[in-house]
Write a structure and sequence with these properties.
Helices cover 26% and strands 23% of the residues. It is an alpha+beta fold. It folds into two domains: 270 residues, B-lactam Antibiotic, Isopenicillin N Synthase, Chain (Jelly Rolls, Sandwich); 83 residues, no CATH class. It has a nine-stranded mixed sheet with strand order 1-2-3-11-8-13-6-5-4. A four-stranded antiparallel sheet has the order 7-12-9-10, with no helix packed on it. Strands 17-14-19 form a three-stranded antiparallel sheet. β9 and β10 form a beta hairpin. It starts with 6 loop residues before the first strand and ends in a 20-residue tail after the last strand.
Amino acid sequence: MEIEEEYFRDRRLVDFNKLSREDSTEIDRLKDELENHGWSFIQLPNENNQFVDKIDQIQKNLQLFFNRNSKEKSSYESKNTLGYSHINHKEGIRLLTNEHGHIKDQSFPDDEFQQTLESVAILCHSFTYILKRILLKMCTSTDNSNEESTPLSQWNMLDIVNYFNHRANSSAQPEIGLDTTEVNCVPHFDPGLFSLSIFSSNEGLQLKDRLKDKWIDAPNYREINHRSIAVLWLGEAASKLTHNTFKTGIHRIIYPQLEHQTRLTIWQEIPTKNQIETIFKQNDQSLVLPENTTVEMTNQPNSLPLKILPGGETMNDFLKRIESERGLAMSKSGVEHIQIKYPIRTTRNNNPQNKIKSFFSSLFRF
């Protein structure tokens, strides 16, 4: 007897409960989606409306925090990108969580808000823990599995972001979206194994249908029948692990149809070791990109080349410019995604442990 499949936006809707029971048919459905597109819609369990009730309370508490004045929110900032951060088009909170879903070394002045963040972390972990196990098994069981793939971090990365949406797209959406004048965040793929988005208060997230070459809208919490549907998209690590049998999930963030319609969203990424190391090295000014050279970002499909500013730019300053001009967080790009025609130079550093290793030069095209 053939089992009827469920669909959302003409895409297969994969059932998380069946995945957690290791239902072979459901796992095959997920595998097909990841091989064809690099992403999938996931139906989360919502028995007796428990998931939605929990998300409603979390949304309320998070919105109360983001409604606070700037000075009060700034007390939650840290020296790196963990904790609270704010740039021109968005604000957010980034946390690292361990293998049990607990927040790493990050406490906030407000105990009630701390509890909200811990609830978010545990909720995300309850899904990503099982999905990580399934995906790693799927990746290593493919005929093209790569045992020397990108090492994963022991930490998970949780993002809670509030997009201001100071502008709107009342006309047709752009075919690509080259910078923040057109979209909130340009099309890209992430470095990690995968990400799971469990909540989006408004329209914005879109995923690329590789077969039909079109953009598909993600679930929108304002629509009642969307509220327990999550989105899973694969990162570069999964593609490398399977020699591109599994595709990277290309996605972008568009502006809403109405101006100043903010969008609150929650997702968790299973990151690489390099991503986490980058977070703690963001004050490193030793790697300098030479002035007036052209740079292409390999993790941003169909993007335009960028010119390094006069006087050169440190890697950190360049990635900050990417975040400001293209909306892509610094942790989503690294030296491995940069193609440049001239060799880099480094500042003098007498401490051998802090010198830039020569292998960096191999990442650049001469």
